[in-house]
Amino acid sequence: MASNILGKISKERTVSAIVIVVAALVSILPGGIVLAAVLYVVSVIGFLELTRACGVRKEEKINSLEITGIVAITCYYPVMYFAQDSAYAVMIIVMALIAVMSVYVFGYPKYHANQVMDTYFALIYAPVMLSFVFLTRQLENGIYLVWMIFISSWISDTFAYLAGVLFGRHKLAPVLSPKKSIEGSVGGIVGAALFGALFGAYMDSVLSRERFVLILAVVGGVGSVISQVGDLAASAIKRNHDIKDYGKLIPGHGGIMDRFDSVIFTAPITYFLIIVLMR
Fold it and tell me: How far is CA 128 from CA 1, 33, 74, 146, in A?
């Protein structure tokens, strides 16, 4: 009975993973408005998963704080897409805080300060950080470089799992995630760095340059560290609020936040590292 259940879960996870990879290819390869639109939808879902998990929503119906957040996301993505100056995106983020605080003030005492802070936290955590997938895709050679976000997260996860199974002895975060080991963590970092170097060699051959191997090895290794922090951070939030998954949207995985927890952290760090190291 147990083996049948595990087999079903494994099958669901595999099918879902394939669908996610295909969706990533279909949206990232063309980039532009297609990628921005997909990220917008994913961001809204992730935002609502977080607000529900953190207790911003006390009932099933979406409340005013969440609506304000969705409006902010709806303003942020077009500005990010069309504006050439990042100051406009920062303006939306600041105005979002003022808008959320306005709902708090004029609706007082309907909402608690913790709900207000969690709403703004959710707005930055998922939508803003995920937008760096689009920003990385917009860079020179971004059609290649954007894949480092996923190498630093999903490839790192794979190597960390394999290294943990084979060599895991010492717990990385015993209270938060008992199954994760220091050996697995190191394996994920090394694996992502090696994969990044190989991807850099491929880019050198395609673009006839000799500059990407070391850069992408560093991006992969550092990104893996940040990826693991993102994974553990999402787990910590779930434990604090006594929930198993953020949602049920992705069979075998949970919600958007369950599947993209590490990507959310690696997207901005990949973008910033590439900007700094390429200079």
Answer: 43, 17, 11, 16
Within its chain, how far is the Cα of 34 from the centroid? 18
How many other C-beta atoms are found inside a 10 Å radius of the C-beta of residue 144?
18
Cβ–Cβ < 8 Å for 47, 122 = yes
Q: For residue 145, how many other CB atoms are within 10 A of its CB?
A: 23
* pLDDT tens by residue, 74-102: 999 999 999 877 889 999 999 999 999 99
pLDDT (tens digit, 9 = 90+) per residue, 159-193?
Answer: 999 999 888 888 988 888 888 899 999 999 999 99
Q: Do 267 and 142 form a contact (C-beta atoms < 8 A)?
A: no
3-state class of 238 per DSSP? helix
SS3 177: strand
Nearest Cα neighbor of 270 from 84, 130, 89 is: 130
156 CB contacts (<8 Å, ≥6 apart)? 188, 189, 191, 192, 220, 223, 224, 227, 228, 262
Residues 276, 205: Cα–Cα separation, whole Å: 22
DSSP state of 152: I
Predicted TM-score (pTM) of the model is 0.91
